[in-house]
Amino acid sequence: MKFKALLLATALSGTLFSVGAHAAELTVGFSQIGSESGWRAAETTVSKAEAKKRNINFKIADAQQKQENQIKAIRSFIAQGVDAIFLAPVVATGWDSVLKEAKEANIPVVLLDRDIDPSGKELYLTAVTSDSVAEGKVAGEWLVKAAAGKPCNVVELQGTVGASVATNRKKGFEDGIAGASNVKIVRSQTGDFTRAKGKEVMESFIKAEGGGKNICAVYAHNDDMMVGAIQAMKEAGLKPGTDVLTVSIDAVPDIFKAMAAGEANATVELTPNMAGPAFDAVVAYKAKGTVPPKWIQTESKLYTQSDNPMAVYESKKDLGY
Ligand code: AHR
After folding, report:
1. Does ligand 1 come within 6 angstroms of the Cβ of 250?
2. What are the Cα distances from residue 48, in Å, to 5, 115, 305?
3. What is the pLDDT of residues 75-101, one digit of tens each?
4. Minimal CA–CA distance to 1: which of 76, 55, 78?
5. Domain-wise residue ranges, the chain
6. For labeling, which of 64, 74, 85, 157 is most exposed (least CB within 10 Å)?
7. What is the pLDDT of residue 118?
8. What architecture is the 4-130+272-290 domain classified under in CATH?
9. Is the CB of 270 within 6 Å of ligand 1?
10. CATH architecture for the domain at 132-269
11. Index of the ligand 1 atom closest to the CA of residue 38
């Protein structure tokens, strides 16, 4: 590992050098989930740009949604002797063996945007994620206000089964509506975080709920599924954003376009820049042994139609979504 050799040479010569100089020697491998959503595409783009800013040699392996591919990629990064591994875990379980291998090889692992089961906590250095329970809660609380005491049947489009963010966003939303007996989840199914599945599942919800007449709101664990659901509602002659309230998560440009057109109501922002804080943590850890907090939390912000959605769309549209 070039980085270790440099550190040793520097320690021997007693020369002090900046964190920036360390970064130039770092190689980081990133096991990315795939490209299921606009947010995911932006995260990949932003990660590359953040690596470039810091002069870090960055290798990305696209797992095409498969955990087995992520495990293979991690093993390959270990064999290559990278200085650190970033992992966006597609699901929360099943990482123990491979992360133990990374630990035995003395390679720190940083989780990006999704968590693993709490039992694996000693197997990674830090996790850079949002508070995904809070995101769901904010979405639920927004809906309770928007429903204003009227009976409101909600259909829910869940993310990938077994993903920490899907479990947490579901729980958070349920917490958010817990005090409002008028707001009820009547149907809930996975749309796997994709537009196509979001549309397909919404079509089945509409059919099952009297052509959509019984649906007051849609909650989607990401904006891409909501964009698909909006399409399904329009094709069924419903008016999303007016007859049917919508709230989702990510804040991708297309949801702001829909909000500006009055076809979506609210979204909770998830920053695509998880890699920037992760690189900084790894650089400080490698250079000075600074152990980062176990959780580096990124911010979540609610946007509604009153936040000038067209301006937000313009500001985001060229950012790699
Ligand atoms: O883990 C983050 C989630 O993964 C995003 O909210 C979703 O769009 C993506 O697929």
Report:
1. yes
2. 25, 21, 32
3. 999 999 999 999 999 999 999 999 999
4. 78
5. 4-130+272-290, 132-269
6. 64
7. 84
8. 3-Layer(aba) Sandwich (3.40)
9. yes
10. 3-Layer(aba) Sandwich (3.40)
11. 8
